[in-house]
Amino acid sequence: MNTQRPPWGSILAILGAALIWSTSFAVTKVLLGQLPPLTIGAIRFTAAALVLSVLVRLQSGWRPPPRRTVVRMLCAGLLGITAYFGLENVGVDFATAADAAVIVAAFPVITLITEILLGQGRATVSRIAGMLLAMAGVWLIVRQSAESSAPHRLLGDVILLAAGVAWAAYNIAASRSGKGHSPLTNTYYQTLAGAFGFLVLCPLEWRSWRMPDAAGVGMLAFLAIMCSVVAFFLYNHGLRKVPSSTAVNLLNLVPVFGLISAAAISREPVGWIEVVGCAVVIAAVVLGAGYGLPTRRGRNRTAAASPAEPPQAVPEPAAASASHAARAARAARESAYGENSDR
């Protein structure tokens, strides 16, 4: 197995996705006053699929992948967009903000365990230490909401854990389906499947449908273009050369970005314990990505001499994420949940 550290370009691409996703919860929270969550997801991902359908055909020499590959990409999209975001949205309605943030921070561990069980990953000291340290840092950031009570809290926690399993399954499925194809192609077919899933589910909310105002339309456009097209493209690009569990660990920076934006834009007070939590998360992400512990020269020579594995192409947030981490992280700062279908 190739143990070389991921290139910084791929790391920065995933960090860019995390930065964008850190803004999605605040936007979604405002939108929930005008539209129900599944409907927001349907509009968001349908609009993103339309944009991607044009962009993907602008690629030089682009041709649709083989039918079997397309089916695999579509299945990955149903897992990573419809199943993940759907479970997360239901879970965060029941659980507390602190529960959600800490459980989302545990997603890298769930993903790593899944990789190991499928023979696609290996647990190293730095990766395990980085993941556990990140969970501790996220807890320091969101600890203020830990005492809030919520009905059916245990049920919400279980649903959020199920969302983590769906996210791990998505990363594994996407790593198999995306090889040999561009991140844009992967993102297009996944978004297409995710939009279809939400379009099937959103009629359940028809009693709450109404026309959003101009500001609402602008926020939907932001979610579709920035949080779905741009962020998912960056995440898919990074996952071509970054192990999926390491990539998910990088998303633990979402609460850090959210805290910084809350202080800079909303002028919310930030305590010293939260600052320490941010520092812990940053250190944990660096450690988990493989940049924290020195490697022996002999091992480096062996790795350089051995042929590298084919790069993983795990199309995504997400994630989201997302969106996944983005929503729970932002929720922790605002101590409120009524999430939509983002990442």
Description:
There is one protein chain. This protein has 343 residues and is mainly α. The protein contains 15 helices and no strands. The protein has helices spanning 8-21, 24-31, 37-55, 67-94, 97-105, 107-117, 125-142, 153-177, 183-201, 214-238, 244-250, 254-264, 272-288, 297-305, 325-334. Helix 9 crosses helix 10. The longest helix has 28 residues, at 67-94. The radius of gyration is 19 Å and the shape is globular. Mean pLDDT is 75; it is low at 292-343.
Indicate the topology.
Elements: H1 8-21, H2 24-31, H3 37-55, H4 67-94, H5 97-105, H6 107-117, H7 125-142, H8 153-177, H9 183-201, H10 214-238, H11 244-250, H12 254-264, H13 272-288, H14 297-305, H15 325-334
Quick recap of the structure?
Helix content is 67%, strand content 0%. The chain has 343 residues and is mainly α.
Label this structure with key terms.
mainly alpha; 343 residues
Helix content: 55-70%
- Shape annotation: globular
DSSP strand tally: 0
Mean pLDDT metric: 75
SSE order, as H and E?
Answer: HHHHHHHHHHHHHHH
Give the percentage of residues in beta strands.
under 5%
Estimated radius of gyration: 19 Å
